[in-house]
């Protein structure tokens, strides 16, 4: 929650207009039309075809880097990223156009002393109006409930912003395509093809919660792995077969869906080895699979999801992830996988 401490102030900065949409060229010659929405450190945020991506600025040719630094040098509104004129307002160390600095519910400009909340995307709302605000369950973007389209209300009071909804996984065919990308990425770190068959199922939140409760799983789950196995022994030879069902929450954007699937594939790998370990080790290890996919992505959502994992206060999912990430940095994937394999009853 933020409190507005300053009212109007008048600057003396000239209003500068640049052609915001331009062609960007990478050092290997690839081109794309896009506009900057933010620059943080050596990371540049580009909006391309209505989707937001983040790249290392060094990825682009020198002319683009010069343009980006010039863009960054000009004072800009925290909400719309356009250059500031003389009518501005400031709060929490951020500066806004007066017209932008308003509550997304009542549409009124904030006044001195107003209390408000701001999300990671710059959206603002009065604290007193927060019961009328919907928050995207994936990216955390706020929007007014009364302005939400029917398709943005997914289930059980779960909302999706229009940006996340635009590339949401809404059908199992699409889920299968995402899964292929995940399998290829995990194979590169040593998580190979499982022995058993995997069935992917899109489910709503009540179904996911019901299945989680049945096996006594807890947490704010967006995916769940259910494994069945059967061992047949003939003489001195035993053979174990597996069947896996991966439940994935309906309506996740591609980036988050990849992370969820990667996490669940790590569970499949552990299950087939019959690994026995404390919950924080198991979930922390599985979150390494999720973070691996998120680091491959270049959009702002992947950055937000990675940051959420890093800052999570959950003993199992947050502390467990940080502990396993530290171990991964010391051991590398081959040695870490060997260590986890040594915990299993089936080598």
Automatic annotation (TrEMBL):
Q: Name one GO molecular function term.
A: metal ion binding
Keyword list (alphabetical) reads:
Metal-binding, Zinc
Q: Which InterPro entries does the UniProt entry name for this protein? A: DA1-like, DA1-like_dom, Znf_LIM
- Report any Pfam family annotated for this entry: DA1-like
All residue ranges annotated as the LIM zinc-binding domain in the record: 75-135
Keyword presence, Metal-binding: yes
Tell me the protein's name: LIM zinc-binding domain-containing protein
The keyword Zinc is assigned to this record: yes
Q: Where is the signal peptide?
A: none
What SMART domains does the record point to? LIM
């Amino acid at each position: 929650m933020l409190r507005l401490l300053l009212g109007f102030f008048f600057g003396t900065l000239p209003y500068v207009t640049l052609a915001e949409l331009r062609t960007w060229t990478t050092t290997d010659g690839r081109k794309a039309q896009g506009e900057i929405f933010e620059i943080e450190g050596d990371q540049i945020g580009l909006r391309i075809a209505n989707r937001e991506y983040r790249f290392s600025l060094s990825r682009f040719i020198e002319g683009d880097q010069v343009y980006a630094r010039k863009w960054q040098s000009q004072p800009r509104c925290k909400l719309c990223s356009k250059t500031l004129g003389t009518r501005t307002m400031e709060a929490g160390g951020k500066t806004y156009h007066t017209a932008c600095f308003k509550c997304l519910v009542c549409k009124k400009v904030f006044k001195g002393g107003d209390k408000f909340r701001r999300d990671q995307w710059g959206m603002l709302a009065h604290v007193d109006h927060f019961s009328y605000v919907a928050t995207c369950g994936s990216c955390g973007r706020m929007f007014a409930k009364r302005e939400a389209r029917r398709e943005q209300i997914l289930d059980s009071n779960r909302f999706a912003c229009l940006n996340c909804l635009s590339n949401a996984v809404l059908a199992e065919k699409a889920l299968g395509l995402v899964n292929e990308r995940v399998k290829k990425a995990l194979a590169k770190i040593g998580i190979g093809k499982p022995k058993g068959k995997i069935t992917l199922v899109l489910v709503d939140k009540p179904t996911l919660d019901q299945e989680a409760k049945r096996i006594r799983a807890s947490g704010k789950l967006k995916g769940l792995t259910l494994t069945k196995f059967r061992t047949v022994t003939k003489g001195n030879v035993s053979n174990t077969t597996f069947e896996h069902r991966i439940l994935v929450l309906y309506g996740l954007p591609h980036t988050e869906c990849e992370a969820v699937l990667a996490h669940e594939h790590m569970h499949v790998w552990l299950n087939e080895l019959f690994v026995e370990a404390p919950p924080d080790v198991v979930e922390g290890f599985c979150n390494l699979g999720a973070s691996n996919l998120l680091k491959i992505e270049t959009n702002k959502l992947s950055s937000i999801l990675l940051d959420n994992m890093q800052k999570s206060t959950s003993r199992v999912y947050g502390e467990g992830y940080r502990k396993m990430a530290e171990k991964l940095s010391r051991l590398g994937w081959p040695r870490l996988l060997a260590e986890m394999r040594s915990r299993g009853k089936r080598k």
